[in-house]
Each structure stands twice: as C-alpha cells, then as structure tokens.
Amino acid sequence: MNNTKFLGIKRDTFLLYALVIPSVLIVLAVTIYPLICTFVYSFENFKLTDAQNKSFAGLDNYIKIFSEGGSVRSMLTTLTFTFFGVLASLIFGLCIALLVNSLKRSRPIFRVVFSMPMLLSSVVVGVMWKFLLNNELGIINFFTSSLGMGKPGWLDTGAFAVFTVILVDVWQWTPYVFILTLAGLESLPLEPVESARIDGANAFQIFRYLTLPGVMPVLKVAAMFRIIWTFRSFDLIFSLTKGGPGRATETMALSIWRTAFEKYQIGEASAQSVLMFLVLMLISIFLIRSMNRKTSDI
Amino acid sequence: MKRSMAFKVSVTLGATLLAVLFLFPLYWTLITSFKTYKEAFASPPVLFKLPDLKNYISYLSQNNILSALINSVIITGSSMLISMTIGTFAAYSLARARIRGGEVMGLFLLASRFIPAVSTVIPTYFIFRSTGLYDTHIGLILINSATNIPYVVWMMRNFFHTVPVAIEESAWIEGCSRMRGFFRVVLPMVKSGITASCVLIIIFSWNEFLNAMMLTGIKAKTMPLTMSMYMGEMGIEWQMMATAGMVIILPSLIFSALSGRKLGAGMSGGAVKG
Q: What's the rounded mean pLDDT across residues B138-164?
C-alpha cells in the first residue's frame, strides 16, 4: 500500500477520513442542525402565521406546556402506548416463535406469513384497520355481531381507542419480535435440551431454565428497538385516529404536529420536541446501558 | 425423543389457524380491491372475489397518482443510491477504524438514529421554504438519504467486520491500492449484506410519511400521501381505498416474502444473525 504523506498525514489515513466524513457532514447538516434550530425556537415567541416576528421568550414555552397539562397527558399516553404495545408484542412474538420453531417442514412458510405486516407502510396499515373496524359496515363488527357480541365502537371512546391503537401496533410489530426470536431459538444448541429431557425435566422447566435464558439477549434487543420506535411513532396513530377521539390517543409526536401545524404555535411545539427528544435520549441511554454490552456493537 | 403424531398435527393446526387470523386484514384488503362499489358495501359482506384488476387500472390512470408513483420511484431510488454509496464507504472506514476520532464518529452516527423526525421536521420546513427545496425531489432525497445513512453505516459495518483484514492485506501485497482492494476483494464478500441493506433502505424511503407530508405540496407528493384522502370518514369508496393500499404495500409484501428473515436481522443491527 502506498503510504506517502499528504497534507502531513499518511495517505491511507487521509483516505479513511475522506470515506467517513461525507456521512458525518450530511447527518450534521440535515439532522443535527435542525435539531439545534428546534432548541432555539423553543425559547422564542414564534407563530407560523407571523413567522417574521420572532422574539426571545425565555422559558415561556416550557412553562406553558407544563402548566396546560396537555403535554403531561400526551406523555402519559405515549408511555401507556409504548409500554403495553411493546409488552404485548414481546409476549406474542415469543409465543409464535416457539410455536413455529417446533415445526420442521412448514417452518419457512410460517416464517414468511408471520413476518408480513412488519415492513408495510404504517399509514396504509392505519387506514386499512380503520376500514376493517368500521362500526356499521366493517368486517370485524360483522363477525362480532354474528357471534352475538354486538358492534363495538372500536375508535369511538377514549380508553377503547387507546386499546385499538395498541392492538393495531401489536399486529404490525409482533413480526419483528417473532423474526428475531425465531433466529435466536434456531441458534440455541440442542444437547442441553436433550439431556434435560433424559433427566426428566418437563416442558415448562425446559422453557424456564434453558430456552428463555437462551433467547433473553435477543428479546432484549427486540425490546430496545421496539421501545424507541414505538415511543416516537407517528404514522400509524395519525392515520388511524389523528389523536382522537378528543385527545385520547394523542401521543407526544401527534401533539407536536398538531401544535405546530394546526395551532401554528412553533415555539410551543419546539419546546414539546425538545422535551420528547430528551425523554427519548434518556430512555435510549438507559436501554443501551442495561443491554450490558459495548454500545459500539449496537 | 420422538414426538407423537397428535402433537405435530395440533401444533400445525394451531399455527395455521393463527396464520389465517393474522393475515385476514391483508386478505380482506386484497379482496376488497377486486370488488365493485356495490360489492364493497354489501351487507352481508361478500367474502370471496376472484381477481379483477379494473380498480387498479382506474386508480393508476389518474394523473396525480401516476405522478406520485413517479415521484416515489425517483425519490426512493435516488436516496437509496446516495445513502448506500456514502454510507457503505463510511461503514468500511469505521469497520477498519484505525483513524483518530473514528470511534466518536461511529457513535455519533449511531446516536443520530435515535433522533425522532418530529423533532427536526419543523425547522426543516422553514429551511426548505427559504431555500426553495420545499416541494422538490431534491429536498426529500436529501432528507431520506440523511435519515438512512446511519442505518446503512450501522448494518454494513457489521458485515465488513466479517471480512478478515488478512484477505485485504494479501491483496495489498500483490499491489492493490486500498480502494482497489475494497472494490475487488471486500465488496464482493459482503454482497448479501449490500442486498439486505438496499432492500431495507428502499422500504424505509418508500414508506416515509411525516417528512413527505410536511415538506411537499403538490409537485413532489409521494405515494403514502395519496392515502391521506382516505383518512376521513365520509364518502370513501372502500374498493378504491383498498386498491390504493395494495399498490403502496405491494413492494414491501414482495420484499418481506423474499427475505423477511434477513431484514429482521438487519433491523437489529447485526445483534442477531439472520
């Protein structure tokens, strides 16, 4: 390799820098710079309808978002949505993976089937479920009423709508947990299970002391990514409920969007953004720490 | 230990039942897209329908849909090319990280993935408005490339780690430069990684919604935005909505059928082997 010097550094080192710098610059310009702007806006009086007249507002925006309670409420909605959505998809994903893993010949087909919804546009998924769940003519209510359960209003009342949004999110993202867990299960060695069987262990004991600890690392990874994605997800709820009825399903992402582009309060929306960003960073750092591995591996 | 026949049959049966339930929403959307207006709203519902592409033809022959489709293809394709090229180079450099600050830059790129789009879209809207990037292909290509570069870096770096440095070194001894060695020796060894990353990036860009919604008006509208006309309640033609939905999710359905396992692994950043 040619190691002549160029601009005072080894040519090869220079090349390695030249390869990585464009990525860093683009991300700095397109992601980090706007993030800094958001931070600046959050201390300003800034309305979309009067964008020319910005003025320094100190902590007004932050005081406003905390005193009005809307942000606290949307934070709670986000946490509820994230907690139950992630938990349910972890449980279902693990169960389906265990089920499919016990199949031999048909496993490839089921792997495809149970991974389908994962990569679909969340906007389409939201609109599609809305039509399935339509009160009067939706196919799901046709089935429930034929089974004598009446026609529930899936998206009509607050608590029920939150449940429905979680349901749809779980439908879309259980595949992610499933795919990872199945890969984890397939990589587990078979001998310990065999010898445990010979020693008289029952199915539950094998699951509890061999299989579950074996897939735990994979489940943790899945949980981490699920938590981060669900916490900030926007598309699905936007297309399914737009935050309604009322503000029952308004998560932080939805609330920021509404404050900025329906109420035109850019300063306030930016303060909410900063808040959301900080909470998400705290969660991410906590999760990465608790993964108990070098962050550079993730 | 041999498992009993009854056990096998019941597990397969259970999995099949679950699969039917699981895929029903997709089945129903597909079937509805074949229906006429009358059939879509029929009560009791029409549960089965043979394929009929006339809704697809009338959907795709609308001018605004056609232009959205072209926009989506241009934006997805370009941002895939840009983020794959720039990101793969960076991933290689970081995988061989012997440069000062390499670790920090790697961490920076990884951390930037955690920044939510809602936190950046408001300033981006104003920046685009004042620079003329609003409602242009270039604007969205820029945004999509930047959001996807960290994913590419993160996925490709794991693939480059699997290529032993010794193989490269022997190429260098034979007179290859670093770049020549990279193209001739290293890249062919991570082909499957490149494919998996490409597919994932294509799907991410294809589905991207929030930025596309806030940063385009009429001209640069992408396919997922055409779905928003079906978000209300009133006067929606279900068979057309289902058709629109099917057209938008078709690429993702095909890709996940072909390589779901690899993609899942890719989305865990190599923490799980596919």
A: 90
Does the beta carbon of B273 lie under 8 angstroms from any beta carbon of chain A?
yes
Return the pLDDT at B1.
44
- State the average pLDDT for chain A: 87
Instruction: State the ipTM, two decimals.
Output: 0.88
Which residues of chain B lie closer than 8 angstroms to A171, CB-CB? Answer: 22, 25
pTM of the model: 0.89
**Between residues B272 and B240, which one has the greater pLDDT?**
B240
What A129-133 contacts at long range (C-beta under 8 Å, 24+ apart), as own/partner pairs, is A129/A164, A129/A168, A129/A171, A129/A240, A129/B25, A130/A155, A130/A239, A130/A240, A130/B231, A131/B29, A131/B32, A131/B236, A131/B238, A131/B241, A131/B242, A132/B25, A132/B28, A133/A164
Mean pLDDT of chain B, nearest integer: 87
pLDDT band at residue A296 under the 50/70/90 scheme: very low
Phi, psi of A120 (to 5 degrees): -75, 150
Extract the tokens encoding A186: 């397939």
H/E stretch holding A10 reads strand A9-10
Query: Rounded mean pLDDT of A84-107?
Result: 92
Q: What is the CATH number of domain B50-266?
A: 1.10.3720.10
Q: Are B197 and B156 in contact (CB under 8 A)?
A: yes
Rounded Cα distance, A70 and A9, in Å: 55
Looking at the complex, report in whole angstroms how far the Cα of residue B20 sits from the nearest Cα belonging to chain A. 9
Pick the CATH number of A68-297 from 1.10.1740.10, 3.20.20.370, 2.40.100.10, 1.10.3720.10: 1.10.3720.10
- Over residues A245-259, the pLDDT tens digits come to 888 899 999 999 988
Task: Measure the CA–CA gap between B237 and B41, rounded to whole angstroms.
Answer: 9
Contact between A177 and A221 under an 8 Å Cβ cutoff? The reply is no
Question: Considering only residues 164 to 223 of chain A, which have any Cβ-Cβ distance to chain B shorter than 8 Å?
Answer: 171, 175-176, 179-180, 182-184, 187, 194, 197, 217-218, 221-222
Q: Rounded distance, CA A296 to CA B109, Å? A: 11
Q: Which has more confidence, A135 or A22?
A: A22
B77-86 burial, b if ≥16 CB within 10 A, otherwise e? Answer: ebbbebbbeb
Nearest alpha-carbon partner for A267 in A29, A49, A72, A78 = A49
Domain boundaries, chain A: 68-297
State the pLDDT at residue B2. Answer: 54
Q: Pick the residue with more confidence: B56 or A136?
A: B56
- Substitution target from B10, B43, B100, B119 for chain A, most A beta carbons within 10 A: B119
The whole-angstrom separation of Cα A203 and Cα B170 is 52
Taking an 8 Å cut-off on Cβ atoms, the answer to whether B203 and A119 are in contact is yes
Alpha-carbon gap, residue B264 to B5, rounded angstroms: 32
